[in-house]
Amino acid sequence: MKHSRLISLFAVALLSSSCSVQAEPEVQVQWLNDSTDRDAVGATWGTPWPQGEVDAASEFTLESESGTSLPVQSWPLAYWPDGSVKWTGHAIAPLELNVGALTLTPGDAVRSEQSLLIVENNGSIRVDTGVIQAVIARSGDRLIQSITRDNRQTLNDGRLVILSQNQAEPEVGQPLTVESFTGQLDQVTLEQSGPVRAVVKLEGKHVGENGRAWIPFVVRLYFYAGDDSVRMVHTMIYDGDQKTDFIRGVGVRFDAPLDGPLHDRHVRFSGEGDGLFGEAVRGITGLRRDPGKAVREAQIEGRATPPLSEWATSVSDRLEMIPAFGDYTLSQLSADAFEIRKRTQPGLSWLDSAEGTRSSGLGYIGSPKGGVAFGIRDFWQSHSSQLDIRNARSDEAEVTLWLWAPEGRAMDMRFYHDGMGLDTHEKQLDALNVTYEDYEPGFDHATGVARTSELRLWALPATPDRQTTVELARTLAQPPQMVARPQDYEAAGVFGAALWDLPDRSTPAKAAIEDQVDFYLDHYLTQVEEHNWYGFWDYGDVMHTYDHDRHTWRYDVGGYAWANSELSPDIWLWYSFLRTGRADVFQMAEAMTRHTGEVDVYHLGRFEGLGSRHNVKHWGDSAKQLRISTPANRRFYYFLTADERTGDLMRSLLGAERRLLDVPPLRKLNRPTPDFSGKPYSMMMGLGTDWSSVAAAWLTEWERTGEPAYRDKLVTAMRSVGNFDHGMLVGSAALDPETGQFYRIGEGVSVSHLSMVFGGVEINAELIQLLDVPEYEQAFIQYGRFYNAPRDEKAEIIGQPYERNLNLGQAHSRMTAYSAWKLNDEALAERAWEEFFSGRAGIPVFGSPYPTKTVMPPEVLSPVTEARGVSTNAVSQFGLAAIQVMALVGEEAPEQVPERD
């Protein structure tokens, strides 16, 4: 059987721990994107370590290929069961992107000559990076009081703004009113204080003039030693009335002091690629009279122009007659169109300055004496978005980065249909049979969904030249991200070590499988682009099912529209990245994790802690379930990047299982509710999607903190399930959430095809790897043997007939493979391969490039690529099954792809 590599991995760890001399563990890290033409900024990442190799108290040293030791700030992210470090977070100061690979090893950390200086008092937190100095408020509505560079204030009064209107669009005879709200601080926390990286967390709500407080926010500010930029991660949580509260704008606003003559004040906006709009507030080129070549060249380049005495007097004597433009706007109202406009002052007309397709979302305002660059990451992908510069003719310009552009449509959170009379569970279940939509009145509300955005601010000593500005825009669009090599992730034994390994094309069959997995990755990247899966509330998600008649995904058909993590595309993408190191796969997985963790999950209100099943509207389906909010979908991104917001999301799900008391998942099926009175348990829980989600939350918290209470609850739960007569095949059980103890209610066997396809396989494999609970391990092995077994074998396993046909046969081939690997059973391994190649309720292996066709206008609006039989459910489970079956029982794989009937 395969996986001598895994056995060897732990054998080496055990042997090395008993040896008096051993080599220090090391991990190589490198930039995710090797492009070097970007601005260098501070970076943070997570690094994995094999069990038993790194002590929890270890410091770390980072060394370049040339042998130079670099300052690095390190902290533990997760621990192995023996207390050794499993994941560490690391931060470095701005580093040139051509540095090459770096080697990270335990050792004395190198101290930086330039460290962050943090000063706290009752009113503020002051952060000095050595280049810029920021003052962050502890209360009030000015979050960033100031940012200073070279004793010049570059930015002040940073605040959050929201505009809201009382109706979705203007209507004749109905007055349209717009209200403004400003973010008010409730809590400020210094989460990290250097020496390389500081993190400040700000929380509060937006408050209006009438005193109304709503739209909670969480903002984190990131500072790095030697960095002239500030990274901002902004989260808003919608808690309005979707029938009356229509948000017109969501923004971050600050004031930018200006000095120097108007002809030396410069505005920059990035376009697509290297495209750049650059003008002066008062232009002196193109005039009827020429001020002089040196003057014109200086203004175009953003340098200080020569003294007026060196200008042609025909211009210098008439400067006040040349219009000066104080207001500028870059608006991206769709994924494929932006425009830039300017005007001299309010009350006068705008001039159309430029148009384009996709702006990267960077702006600048300043002079040769200093200025501020600012921008929104995923600017065009997360439309509608907008950058405003106002009052550039005055001593202080006002800049607003609009995450939701006020020039676009108002944010409409309402459901897309009126309920269509589906006012009983019976009617709703009947409608499910035609549109696949699980509708229920009152469950289509957006209250509690969230959106996280990333912004960046640069305090600059002067107007940057054009090439430097382009490099700033590239950094904004793709911030430098450090990652380990695939072989280092594999060697560390993380994310269920047995379930994945590196790509293997050693035989024709394996090569065909790898090629098909790669095809699906490429196809979905193409589909995002061809079908414009972009927008503030949509970017990061993919659609569920294709409509070959209309040649489009079923964006308007009930439960066939947005996937909302259905059957784990998130996990498939992350395992694909771990194996390949592909930057484009990482970026797609990152966007999906951001989206599905925020938009598809409720963060307050009635459904807090639950996620929504797939629907036309991300929050529209009445199935509010743990299987969508599960930390199983977030763990990868958190440990790979050390992202604090993702850490918050996973921790917030501790105790989310109690929501099942208020929102029973099976409420529409009229099943009798057990009498819990006087019992130690309080809720029924499925041992598939529900338990896997709860286990993921407890496991992650135990790993992150080492808190034994969560380990003990996991062990208690696992032992109780393992001691049931039929183990995990009982389907559901009663849970005491305080202790983790499960209690058997009822009799017989109950198996669902959905139980293991929402992270169940992956989380259970990790539980078994980390915790020694033999009875639970045997129960999971039994489940894998049983699921796809012929009926006579099923009956033999459970001691009674089982006539029900189970779906998703190909998806569960990986469970057969897991059982075969654990039992060292070659016959069972061969059965796993037969199940995988059969493609039952999945996708066959084609053994050649997947058949596609391009559909051209006028059949469609624009050319689209179609792949027959592709759906997100099938592709996600095909990808996971392919990766895991090859990893578990790869030695039993046939040489050739079996011929299909």
What portion of the residues fall into strands of 2 or more residues? 25-35%
Q: Which spans have pLDDT < 50 for at least 5 consecutive residues? A: 2-21
CATH topology of the largest domain: Glycosyltransferase
Broad shape: globular
Signal peptide: 1-23
InterPro entries: PcRGLX/YetA-like (IPR045793), PcRGLX/YetA_2nd (IPR048330), PcRGLX/YetA_3rd (IPR048331), PcRGLX_1st (IPR048329)
Keywords: Signal
Pfam families: PcRGLX_1st, PcRGLX_2nd, PcRGLX_3rd
Ordered list of secondary-structure elements with their pairings:
Elements: H1 4-18, E1 27-31, E2 43-48, E3 60-64, E4 69-70, E5 73-79, E6 85-92, E7 102-106, E8 117-120, E9 124-128, E10 132-137, E11 144-149, E12 152-165, E13 178-193, E14 197-208, E15 213-224, E16 229-237, E17 246-257, E18 266-270, E19 276-280, H2 293-301, H3 313-316, E20 327-334, E21 337-343, E22 351-356, E23 362-367, E24 370-376, E25 385-390, E26 396-404, H4 425-435, E27 450-460, H5 466-477, E28 482-484, H6 486-492, H7 508-530, E29 546-547, E30 552-553, H8 569-580, H9 583-598, E31 611-612, E32 624-625, H10 626-629, H11 635-641, H12 644-651, H13 659-662, E33 683-686, H14 689-705, H15 708-722, E34 732-736, E35 741-743, H16 760-770, H17 774-787, H18 791-798, H19 813-823, H20 826-838, E36 852-855, E37 864-867, H21 872-889
Antiparallel strand pairs: 1-7, 1-28, 2-6, 3-4, 3-7, 5-6, 8-9, 9-10, 10-11, 11-12, 12-13, 12-17, 13-14, 14-15, 15-16, 16-27, 17-26, 18-19, 18-23, 20-21, 20-25, 21-22, 23-24, 24-27, 25-26, 29-30, 31-32, 33-34, 34-35, 36-37
Helix pairs in contact: 6-8, 7-21, 8-9, 8-21, 14-15, 14-16, 15-17, 17-18, 17-19, 19-20, 19-21, 20-21
Signal peptide: 1-23
Domain PcRGLX/YetA-like central beta-sandwich: 118-473
InterPro entries: PcRGLX/YetA-like (IPR045793), PcRGLX/YetA_2nd (IPR048330), PcRGLX/YetA_3rd (IPR048331), PcRGLX_1st (IPR048329)
